[in-house]
Amino acid sequence: MAVDSPVAQLIRAHRLRPIELLPWVVAAAAYFLASGYLPLGSQIMIMILFALSLDLVLGYAGIVTLGQAAFFGVGAYAAGIYSVHVSGEPLSGLIVGAAAAAIVGVVSGAIILRTSGLTLLMLTLAITSLLEAAANDATAITGGNDGLQGVAINPVLGLFDFDLYGRTAYLYCLAVLFIAWLFVRRLVHSPFGQSLVGIRENAVRMHAIGTPVRHRLLTAYTISAALAGVAGALLTQTTQFVGLTVLSFERSGEIVIMLVLGGTGRIYGAFLGAAIYMIAQDQLAEADPVFWDFWIGLLLVLIVLFARGGILGLMDRLLSMVPRRR
Questions:
Q1: Residue 157: how many CB atoms within 10 A of its CB?
Q2: Nearby residues of 297 by Cβ (< 8 Å), 6 or more positions away
Q3: Count of domains forming the chain
Q4: How far apart are CA 123 and CA 126, in angstroms?
């Protein structure tokens, strides 16, 4: 039997499979069949994009972080400040949010990626705490505890207003997520993405064969920061408000839970985990407003104990038990 070359394997992995269209079919159907939940749908898509940014560094590059909210919050505040003081044009606001988060990512990454293990984990958490404290103190710029007021977003492309029913916000988030998905999908199936997997598995060996390990990690960290900044900017634009919660440790913890729930190192783990978490949170908070987080925690414990690799890993094992035709 002939063995495919690495290039042929990359080309085959990069081909779009019909099953990969399922999330977009579901999103399109939800727009027409669940019009009363469009604001929740927008939030889900923002969290999916946020989880994708985390998966790039945690799932593919193996950078363990609890500070992804730093980039999410920087993007959110940058887009809000840009709207208040410069322009409410949404697309340029996304670029500003991505650029601001990328700058923070490359500067902080150049420092913290020299470390590893627990030290790296604590440094990512410390950077988020420092930015949250700075945003709280800079009341004249960020609004402090009261949040940034006066955020006004112009119609998308000058044509589509952000309506009260969330239709424009939903389609806007869907379009941005789709573009980000295409970019991330192409990235992880490229030689660069495969080198990140190799670094995750054995950084010493990758360094020995001539791979610029630190440079690759810093590049991935910066790209991840930019994607998280876009997600934060989307949140600001769709809610027309930004507060200190975008920089909170809880925000970082939630996105890690979503990714672990769906499955790390799998693009669609971000889709599945974020959607399940957000829907479960919405339903459980309505059914049990006091102890809803207990049920979320119980679900996560069960996934970690009995579904290693998240829900996608569990699905893979179940499918492997189904006999296939020769």
A1: 10
A2: none
A3: 1
A4: 5
How far, in Å, CA of 82 to CA of 85, rounded? 5
Contact 272, 312 (CB under 8 A): yes
Separation CA 171–CA 192 (nearest Å) = 31
In the block, tokens 């690799």 appear at 309
Structural domain containing residue 101: 20-245
**How far is the C-alpha of 52 from the C-alpha of 256, rounded, in Å?**
11
What is the distance between the alpha carbons of residues 62 and 296, in angstroms, rounded to a whole number?
Answer: 25
- According to DSSP, the residues that pair with 156 across neighbouring strands are 160
Cβ-contact 310, 260 below 8 angstroms: yes
Residues 255 and 237: their CA atoms lie apart, in Å, by: 20
Structure tokens at 234: 């989307």
- Which residues, 6 or more positions from 68, have their beta carbon under 8 angstroms from its beta carbon? 50, 53, 54, 57, 124, 224, 228, 252, 255, 256
Beta bridge partners of 67: none
φ, ψ of residue 236 to 5 degrees: the values are -60, -45
Q: Is residue 303 part of a domain?
A: no
- Report yes or no on 217 lying in a domain: yes
What is the tens place of the pLDDT at every residue in 68-122?
A: 999 999 999 999 999 998 988 999 999 999 999 999 999 999 999 998 888 898 9
Stated pTM of the model: 0.90
